[in-house]
Specification:
By secondary structure, the protein is α+β, with helices and mostly antiparallel strands. The protein contains 9 helices and 17 strands. The strands form 5 sheets. Strands 7-8-12-10-11 form a 5-stranded antiparallel β-sheet. A 4-stranded mixed β-sheet has the order 3-4-6-5. Bound molecules: flavin-adenine dinucleotide.
Amino acid sequence: MTTTATIELAGLDGGHHTLTSEQLEDLDSRVQGRLLVAGDQGWNDAVAIWNGMAARLPALVLQPASAHDVAAAVGFARDHGLLLSTKGGGHNIAGTAIAEGGLTLDLSCLREIAVDPDAKLAHVGSGCLLGEVDQATQAHGLATVLGFVSETGVAGLTLGGGFGYLARRFGWTVDNLAEVEVVTADGQLRTASRDQHPELFWALRGGGGNFGVVTRFSFRLHEVGPTITGGLIVWSAERAEEVLAAYRDLTDSAPRELTAAAIVRLAPPARSCPRSGTASPSPGSRCATAARTPRPTLPQFARSGTRSWTWSPPSRMPPCSRC
Ligand SMILES: Cc1cc2nc3c(=O)[nH]c(=O)nc-3n(C[C@H](O)[C@H](O)[C@H](O)COP(=O)(O)OP(=O)(O)OC[C@H]3O[C@@H](n4cnc5c(N)ncnc54)[C@H](O)[C@@H]3O)c2cc1C
């Protein structure tokens, strides 16, 4: 961290608190992770969130290197009455990952993933993005229920319930959550599951990010892929009535393995979309089968758009270069 004499931080009481350089050094000495202020290398990435319209700035960022660092930071924030926020993948649309003028814990260094194929469990650091978990579990032909977009954070998605391609077959993300390691407001590191702190576990399964700072999630895994059938099928808006009626019939009768979503939007300028269609609204449908099952019967006009594909890592996955 750049040497700073004092720093003003937003407090829980709505006022401002001045931290002296000694107090900052005290926090720095309690943690292994990096403390950042504006202008430091890595600051822009640490405070970036998906929704630029909701962007705001903290006064101080800590990038914890361990659950112990998270506990130390929570204790420090509590002792000094500081406004504290937690950033997982930064995809919350309201921008709640960042505490305006406060202390933000950027969990991007908690990226460890351990897969136990025998127990069919994945232990996932709370700074992981969805694609990283899929990559690790698919190496064993396994997967858990995560979302549609690989760059979303595991933490916020899971704490909000979580749904994605596999939800119809295996339930919500939180239905597949076996255990959580979490730092609660008293600075204690706890394990919550159906057997340990069951009420805390219940609250974390969909209650959002206000019950503590999660440092690790353990998910149950299922045999999926690695080859599945999926794809995006695009039609022009003139066929909306016909397509949406067929979509309704399809989802009425589809097997649990099929997840499908209809989207009405301007077609993106993608190679897969016909040029003439890119400026006009196009009802489309995403679909994917969630297991090694025969391809489901799709309406005739949709069949040509599906294909079998094998998971590969997204090219834009940001590496964790700071840890
Ligand atoms: C492009 C896009 C696609 C999406 N697709 C899906 C989808 O397919 N399925 C779905 O269910 N949702 C989806 N969402 C919604 C998404 O799951 C939520 O916005 C979720 O909050 C994002 O999690 P995050 O970790 O990236 O967000 P962040 O903004 O980092 O965090 C979200 C909230 O969780 C809190 N939080 C983060 N980490 C922790 C932690 N370790 N402990 C405690 N609290 C924490 C934060 O403080 C914040 O309040 C999508 C969102 C976007 C923008």
